[in-house]
């Protein structure tokens, strides 16, 4: 796992170095400030410092409430601030960078278990070099969710149901789409129960307990927000609607794509469209490869949420960052290429790195578009 973490850190540090050069050359801003206090990071830092207390009224009439943001990441940031002299933004970076390293370990463990160590290393490297992987170096929640998801899925595949359920519950407290981890655990548990009944075996109490734990984090926070809003079941979704986010089965996204194809737009929008389309193709390949059920359910739910949600089209690639199992077919192909034609694989990795570093620097320094 040390090699996997070294690969990940090397890729991300090079990306941060390119971002720092771009920031100094164009805006003169402190790159760590950009990474630690941009867009949603400001909301998380505010929650860590003051709790849930902020509501912002936009000129458009929209009302933005900080209860839209799940509590695990701010709680971790607050804990780091309590034991260190770091600022809120710096504490957020410590949490995110640590979680990203833990996630890299979990991703390697899954890839190695399924297809061998080489695929595990390739999977980590590809995840570190995604076009939006700069988010993994920012004070955002995706590294935390990915770390919890990777190890929860690994626990499912190795039959550690209590760990799987507990980590899924924590993932449900990290992000709204963290429910995908619980869905994967529940689907795997249901399949295992069916197998036990079919074969006349007793169902372990650990399996029942793990399955019961899995959805508790996400459900508890949604109900807490609902109670606070005076609408137990619908309050959280009303908060999201006021942010412009709702699940409309892709109607809003299709309308946006139609407008984009007719009238064009800034590079972040066609790039988002290409990344989401690539995600669909990769999921089809994952299905064709007959990947384990928990990985299919987890990736499928994340993809469904990204496709079916309206609002913030440019953020959809970020929503797919935790969907690392989608990269398994590419990781296997990269390993086969590296063994047959090493220079070809080197060129591919170098091209991915160039795209990731340049586009990441553009997103954070120059795009001025919400991530």
Automatic annotation (TrEMBL):
Annotated transmembrane regions:
90-111, 118-141, 161-194, 206-224, 267-288, 295-313, 319-335, 347-368
| Subcellular location(s) of the protein | Endoplasmic reticulum membrane
User: Where does it mainly reside?
Assistant: endoplasmic reticulum
Q: Which domain of life is it from?
A: Bacteria
Which pathway does this chain act in?
Glycolipid biosynthesis; glycosylphosphatidylinositol-anchor biosynthesis
Signal peptide range equals 1-22
User: Which keywords appear in this protein's UniProt record, sorted alphabetically?
Assistant: Endoplasmic reticulum, Glycosyltransferase, GPI-anchor biosynthesis, Membrane, Signal, Transferase, Transmembrane, Transmembrane helix
Query: Has UniProt tagged this entry with the keyword Transferase?
Result: yes
Describe its membrane topology.
Multi-pass membrane protein
In terms of InterPro entries, this protein maps to:
PIG-V/Gpi18
Provide the protein name.
Glycosyltransferase family 39 protein
